[in-house]
Structure formats: structure tokens, C-alpha cells
Amino acid sequence: MKEFNSSKDFHKVGYTYAFFWWGLFTLYCLAHQIDRVLIYRTRRLRSQGKVMPEPFSILGCFGRIFNSFEHVIQIPFVTTWMPIKHIIGVTFFVIINVIWICLAPFHLSANKTWANVMTIGLMDRRAAYVGMVNWSFVFILGSRNTVVTRMSGLSFEGLIPFHRWLARIGFIEYIPHFVWRIMRGYQKDYVAKDALFRDIEQGTGTIAMIGFLLLFVTSFEWIRRNYFEIFYYSHIVGIIIATIAACWHETGCFYYFIPAVLLWAFDRIWRTYQSWWSNYHHTKLLKAESFDNNQGAQGQGITQVLFEYGRLQHYHPGQYVFVTLVNKTKKAFWNYANWHPMTISEVFQPSTTTLDKTRKELNEKIATSSSNKKTNGDKQVQEKQAIDQESTGSSSSTSDNIKNRRYRQQSDIPSASLHIKALGSYTHDLLQAGIEHNELDLRVDGPYGPRLEYQDYKTMACFAAGIGITPALTLVKDCIERRAAGVDTVITDQVHLVWAIRTLDELTPFTDLIIYWTEQCSNATNPIQLYLDIYVTRQNNSNNNNEQGQKHWIETLNNCNVTFNSRPNIENCMNRIEEVTSDNKSVWVHTCGSDDFMRIIMNQAIKHHWNVHHETFEF
């Protein structure tokens, strides 16, 4: 390993480039932290009973100026989903890369001209150093537990698109160096082996490039979505090979790779400790139940998993966890290595805080009120029993779920539920295991995701397709519970949920939760209105599965509109929301579904000048 010379121009290119981007990122973090202080101040004044407008935001000012750049487009053969602002950002990033490769350190050494600097023998190494810095960013952006997310407010899944783009740009910047050194190695003695393995330096460079190539090839979307385990573990193997070989190849790599790789390694070790050995974060699987709704053969059933997990006390609505669910009857230890991202659909926090005690008192009030309304109560029970008879593959009734809800709210350990739709081989096997009541083992890592600040808006509108409802469930529940408990920092007084499902049977796993919402709304301390718009795309009417010709229970709820054999017209839905909201400039939109579905909603929300957040797993 040769001695590192820090005075060379291509090293100056590397560290000045790194300082430039870290400087810009620091300014962004400062603006974010100032915004957090202003938001906290506004909420504190609201908690004292003062009427406060939406807090001033430094980053929000830029957001309003460049609002039109939030528009999302599809780029054929590249991506199905990319905002214009990201295209502009990537273009700016590439321009800065070219400037640094060609011109940094922006002055000439003695007795040198630009003609000397622009030779391919120097330019390939300058490009490689810039690519090396980009890959150091890639390691950090791909880690779940880093100071970067804490400082910037950007979530792990929000950084993943930048992780991918920087990796591609950095890989392209390696190619000129790799190709030129292959040519130079072969031209020494015109021996084919020398092109790749002429000496230690040449050989380690080749091995490093193989590691980076493994990362690049296995990260294509088709592999990520269909063979997630191959993508995931190829990344780990590729990182180890590329890092060791690159540092052996060029001593300067230590300065850029090792700090980033150490952060990545710490992230891996910390996640493993939390998932396997930490008693404080011990995970206990309480129940795994499947709702196949006579659709098991089509792979459309849903598995509900209920579990206790200590770290849920740090959970915020809309967040997700990584889980591994192993069927113990198969006795395959390798299955413990299969981690998948799952959105939490509901959380039950222990009754220890003032808010939790208020919720408990409110629930007791609701229970007393319901007992005095025997007629309506009997009708609800009959409807719930009818639902249970419609559901197949379910190991417990809806009334059992309601009893379980009351029990979980009195527990001292936080718990959560996952609703997992059978969309692939892994989730279909999980559905079958639930139907057969096989014993499962659960490990959890998380929660991860942003803190969604819906409470500073008068109206929250959630748009979901199919199982994409899960993040919206926690948002709606959190908003309704806080308003019902009289939390003044939540100014949201209207919640709109637009949900597209195939058949009404898909409502079965969520029956008790939806009824719980309506009970909370009707007894809320601070008034809140819940509007439900259900679009049933593959069913003509509710009588299809009801021999007695009665309405489905969802159709009997107040402010609930059910449309059969139709998909939601997003523009019309948003126009209706705009008509009934108390402040059409204070609307927060959340969406989760297919790329096409979310792209339409994002663009329509931007057209109305509303703040919008989308959920998507692009790992």
C-alpha cells in the first residue's frame, strides 16, 4: 500500500467537494431546527388557550416559492415517480460534479497550465475522487439510525431516492478511471491478464469495481420488488468487498469511506442489538389472525398481527417497522434473515400519561352512553355478527377485537397491529400460516419514518388504495383521539378519508377501529368531523354478499358515502373537500397506494396549493 499524498490536486478535488456539500447541508439543518423551535413556540401558546396562526417556517417559504416544482412526472425506462424539484436537484448536483472534476481546486500550481490538468491521466482520478465522496454520502443516506435524520428532519425513506441517485452518479464517475486503467494495464506488455490484475494496485481496483457493480446490478427495481432478499444481502456483501478493496487500492479512500462505513456498521450493530438482545425492547407476539374473505386463492387475503414492543413509546403516527415473521413449523433459521418493511396500522399506548387517562375516561363515558342506547346497540351487535359470518379464515369475532382493544388500552406495555396483504410469496405464506394457526416468531426493528405534522392544519385528507390504508389509520386515530381528549395543540377539526377497495369484505379487519372512530367523534371534547368516502371497485352493491338485502354496516354511519363499481375521481374529491373545509388554504393531504394513484393525488394537491405527503417503500 503506497503512501498517501494529500497535496495532489485530485485529493484537493475530493475534500473541497465534500466540504461544499456538508456546508450546504449544515445550513439546511440550521433552518430546520429554527423551524422546529418556532413550531414548538406556537403549540405551547395554543396549549395556553391562545389562538395562533400557522407558524412561520424558513423552509416553508422556499416550499411556497417553488410549489409548482412539486409536480410529479413519470420518466419512461427510468422511474415511474419523480418530482420536478428532484429532477432540478439532480441536474444541479451533476453540474456541480462536472465543475469540481474540471476546475477544482480552482487555481493552478506553479509551472502548470489548464492543458496539463485536462489530461485523461489526471481527469480520470479527479472523477474517481468525486465519485468516492458521493459514495461516502451513499453509505450515510442508506443508514436507518444516523445523526443526519435527527439534524435535518428528513426520514430514512425520504433519503432513499437520493441514496439511489448519488450511487448511480458515483458509479458513472468511477467508469472513466476503471476503463482508462484497464487500457493502460494492457498497453504495458499487451497481456490480457494485466488489464485487470497487473499488480496489487490494479487487482484491488478491479475487485473494488466488481463490488460496486454487484451493488448496482442488484438494485434495479425489478430485482428489489421481486427478489428483495437478493437485493438486500447483495448490498451487504457488495459494500464489504468494495470498501476493503478500494481502501487497499488507494490510501485516500480511508479518509472518505471509513467514517461513513463506521456509521453504517454502527447502524447495523445497533439494529441487531435492539431486535435480538435488548430486554427493554423485548418483542412479544400476541396474535396472528388471517382474513382470507374467500379470496385466498387469488392472494388477496389480509393477515393481522398484534404484538407488544417497548420502543413503540417513541412511535409517531404514519411510521413503519422492519419485521421478520418466521413460521416455527418450518424450522428454517435462514428465514430470520428476511426483514421486510411494514406500516403500523394501530398502536395501543399504556395508560400512564394525562392524555391516556383522559382517553380512558372518555372511553368509559362512551361505554355508559352506549349502554343507555339499547336499540342502537343491539343493531350494532347484529351488524357485527353478520360481518363475522361473512368473514372466513378469521379466528376471532369482531366483538372479541373490541374486547381486546379495551384490554390493550389498560396494558402497561405498548402494543401495535400490522395488517399485511398477501401480495407476494412471502406475504401469501404468512396468510396461509395464519389460516392454519401455525406458531410464528416475530422480531421488530424500528419504528422509522417522519413525524407527520398534520395537527397544524384545519383539515386532514387521507387518500388510500387497498392496503395502503394502514398509515392513514394511525393518523386518523391519533387526530380523533387528541381532539376527543381536548388537546388544544391539534387544530384539525375535519378529517376526510377517501379509500378505494375491491369489495366490502376488505373492511372486515378494520371494523372495530372504524366504529371506535365514530364513537370518539360523537363524544369529543373539541369538535371534530369525520367524512368517509369508500369506493368499491369490483362490487355492484352491498346486497351481493347479503342474502337478507340489508345495508352493509359501513353505509349506516354518519357522513359516510359508499360508491360501488367505481374508482375515485381525485379532482372531484378534492373539490368537495375544498367546499366544506373551514379554511381551504389549511389542508394537509396524505396518500398511499400505487405510483399512478399517488402521482394523481400529489399533482391535484399541488394544484390546490395544499401540503401533501406520500408513503412509498423504495428500498
UniProtKB/TrEMBL annotation:
Q: What membrane topology does the annotation report for this chain?
A: Multi-pass membrane protein
Q: Where is the composition biased (Basic and acidic residues)?
A: 375-387
Boundaries of every Ferric oxidoreductase domain copy:
128-245
**UniProt-listed GO biological process terms:** monoatomic ion transport
Q: What are the FAD-binding domain coordinates in residue numbering?
A: 313-450
In this chain the Ferric reductase NAD binding domain maps to: 457-604
Compartments, as annotated in UniProt: Membrane
The UniProt entry lists the main location of this chain as membrane
Region (Disordered) location: 365-410
Give a GO molecular function annotation for the protein: superoxide-generating NAD(P)H oxidase activity
- GO cellular component terms? plasma membrane
**Top-rank lineage group of the source organism:** Eukaryota
Keywords attached to this entry: Electron transport, Ion transport, Membrane, Oxidoreductase, Transmembrane, Transmembrane helix, Transport
Which residue ranges run through the membrane? 20-39, 87-107, 127-144, 203-223, 230-248
Pfam family membership, one: NAD_binding_6
Q: Which PANTHER family match?
A: FERRIC REDUCTION OXIDASE 6-RELATED (PTHR11972:SF69), NADPH OXIDASE (PTHR11972)
Q: What is this protein called?
A: FAD-binding FR-type domain-containing protein
Q: Tell me which species this is from.
A: Circinella minor
Lineage, top ranks: Eukaryota, Fungi, Fungi incertae sedis, Mucoromycota, Mucoromycotina
